[in-house]
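Today's session is about reading a structure prediction critically. Students often jump straight to the picture, but the first step is always the sequence itself: look for stretches that repeat, for charged clusters, for runs of hydrophobic residues. Only then move on to the predicted structure, which in these notes is written as discrete structure tokens rather than atom positions. Here is the chain we will use throughout the hour.
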Amino acid sequence: RKIKCDNCNGYGGKDLKNCTRGNGRGIEKVSNYSILGQFETTRTCTGCGGSGKIPSVLCKPCAGTGLLRIKKNLNINLPAGLEDGNKTKVKGLGDYGKGDTEAGDLVITIREHKHAIFTRDENSIHTTLKIAFTKACLGGNVIKPTLSGNKVKISLKQIDISKTFRVRGKGILGADMFIDFEIDIPKKLTEQEESLLLHLGQ
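Below is the predicted structure for this chain, in token form.
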């Protein structure tokens, strides 16, 4: 971030005089040409950087720029529901200009990292819950954490685990969380387990 130099108060030096390029206004006229003819626009003065003043003696700490570049860690409270690529603005935390200009705004571009167990579809949350083979057959209760850190209890006897299960209000900004069940089938069975499964299959 660029801040005003304390030594020259942002003017780049001392013994200030009006900038002749912009007549002390901090802006200059620029002539442009097109097939329709000549027209004029204005821009920030390139002679004084918009301050309207030119120092006769340059400031050493900022080398006459009137600004110093610093690094600073900021704690910023972001609104809920932002998505990858969204931009949010923090007023007054951008760069300063030369002279007595105020600081601009800090524009933050959101980059959303993948979550270990949740995927996102707009404000809806999707996840997979692995359950033991015995619970898939006999039912029981399972516990699933939500995005907020709270947990929900699900009774397997009351739902069809072959279908996606919806937990209302546990997504982003009150949207829903969707759970797909994955059955953990054992790779090796004991003789007793194999016998029981054969019996059930008859």
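Discussion point for the tutorial: The longest strand covers residues 124-132.
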